[in-house]
Write a structure and sequence with these properties.
- The protein is of the alpha+beta class and 405 residues long.
- The chain folds into 2 domains: 3-188, no CATH class; 198-262 and 274-401, Histidine kinase-like ATPase, C-terminal domain (Heat Shock Protein 90), CATH 3.30.565.10.
- It is built from 12 helices and 5 strands.
- It has helices at residues 3-6, 11-17, 28-54, 59-75, 83-93, 101-114, 117-137, 146-227, 233-261, 280-289, 308-328, 370-380, and strands at 293-298, 333-341, 345-353, 384-389, 394-401.
- Strands 1-2-3-5-4 form a 5-stranded mixed β-sheet, covered by helices on one side.
- Helix 11 (308-328) links the parallel strand 1 and strand 2.
- The protein is rod-shaped and about 130 Å long.
- The two termini are 50 Å apart.
- The relative contact order is 0.06.
Length: 405
């Protein structure tokens, strides 16, 4: 049995299959069964004592027989912990004692239920062998035909063994079904946790892509105001308006992400529309308004014809490329190339000259995980992504995404 599921199952059921597992204490059902078994054994002692008295058994023999029967009845209280040992002791006592028959039946039935068939069968053979010795020690109870006693011993042992095996098989089935239910519930919880983790990772990627773009625009405009304090009022007002708009959008995006991550959020709330490749011209224009020099080479006639999932990934790659260009190559011209067709795939390229000399403005901090996230995004979409310095000295970010026909 798988260890992680054993701890979730009741000890009483585990004890049915594994001899090394002991329930910590008897349940109410166990107490009821044990009391009834003890009373049954005591009643058998009284009945067989009365029968022995009618057959003229001597008082000394009857007293020894009764004491052995009572002792075997008391031993039944330990049958759950030591079923085989208790059964063997009672079988030894049964070689002489008639009144121990009730205790012997219960003890052997317990072995048949709680132990595997080879162990139960060997215990039954031991009991039958003791039954063969009984007519020699107690001829007052022996049948006139020896083989009749042998047949009865075999039949009763086989019936008890078969009954015990049926009960054991049923309990094994119940335990197996319960274990499957526990495993299925645990696996379902694991799948839910994995789905939540994947969703949180997806949200984290979106947050990085969106907020990095917004905040880099804020930094760019704020830097322009800092280095040009004597700019005309119209330009200052325009830059301040862009800063206000970008800050508002960044706060809105951040509020939505936090709302999704917060436990107990409204799962039925509609998601904010995600950008597609048709929104790429707006992204380029937004970057141009921030002072970037961006050239767009669009070789796809209809950007809206690109599938939504492919277009969203392409949009995020271009967005991250522009953000990186603002961070590390401010003032340079950035080329954005979008090409491809249905069936052959969609390629996206963002290229800018490698920065030379000392930066003219403070560097925009970054976590350094943007390209890692883009690589993972492209791989999950079934594509590939490359980035690095080219032979001509440019920094090139290139990705290919599958575009089904």
């Amino acid at each position: 049995m798988v260890p992680e599921y054993r701890a979730l199952l009741p000890g009483v059921l585990l004890a049915e299959l594994d001899p090394d597992v002991r329930p910590a204490r008897r349940t109410v059902r166990d107490w009821v069964v044990d009391v009834l078994a003890f009373l049954f054994s005591i009643i058998m002692v009284l009945v067989l004592m009365a029968a022995s008295d009618e057959q003229g058994v001597t008082e000394g023999t009857l007293a020894i027989d009764a004491l052995l029967g009572l002792a075997c009845s008391v031993l039944l209280w330990g049958r759950r912990r030591w079923p085989v040992a208790v059964c063997l002791v009672i079988a030894i006592a049964g070689v002489y004692s008639v009144t121990s028959v009730g205790a012997a039946i219960i003890a052997f039935f317990t072995v048949a239920v709680h132990r595997r068939f080879p162990v139960a069968a060997a215990t039954g053979v031991f009991g039958v062998a003791g039954g063969l010795v009984f007519p020699v020690l107690r001829p007052d109870w022996a049948s006139s035909l020896f083989w009749v006693d042998v047949v009865w011993a075999l039949v009763v042992t086989a019936l008890i063994l078969g009954w015990g095996m049926v009960v054991r098989a049923r309990r094994q089935l119940v335990l197996s079904l319960r274990e499957r239910a526990v495993r299925a519930e645990s696996e379902q919880q694991l799948r839910v946790a994995q789905a939540q983790q994947m969703e949180r990772a997806r949200i984290a990627r979106e947050m990085h892509d969106v907020l990095a773009h917004r905040i880099s625009l804020l930094s760019l405009h704020a830097g322009a105001l800092e280095f040009r304090p004597d700019a005309p009022p119209e330009e200052v007002a325009e830059a301040a308006g862009v800063i206000r708009h970008s800050a508002h959008q960044a706060l809105q995006d951040l509020r939505e992400v936090i709302g999704v991550l917060r436990e107990g959020g409204d799962d039925d709330a509609p998601d904010r529309p995600q950008p597609t490749l048709a929104d790429l011209p707006s992204l380029i224009e937004e970057s141009r308004q921030a002072g970037m020099r961006v050239r767009l080479d669009r070789e796809v006639p209809d950007l809206a014809a690109v599938p939504v999932g492919v277009g969203r990934n392409a949009y995020r790659i271009v967005q991250e490329g522009l953000t990186n260009a603002r961070k590390h190559a401010g003032g340079s011209t950035v080329d954005v190339i979008v090409a491809g067709a249905a069936g052959s795939g969609l390629s996206v390229e963002v290229r800018n000259p490698w920065p030379v000399g000392r930066a003219t403005s403070p560097a925009i901090p970054g976590a350094g995980t943007g390209l890692v996230g883009l690589t993972e995004r492209a791989a999950l979409a079934g594509g590939r992504l490359e980035h690095g310095r080219t032979a001509s000295g440019d920094f090139r970010l290139w990705a290919w995404l599958p575009w089904p026909s």
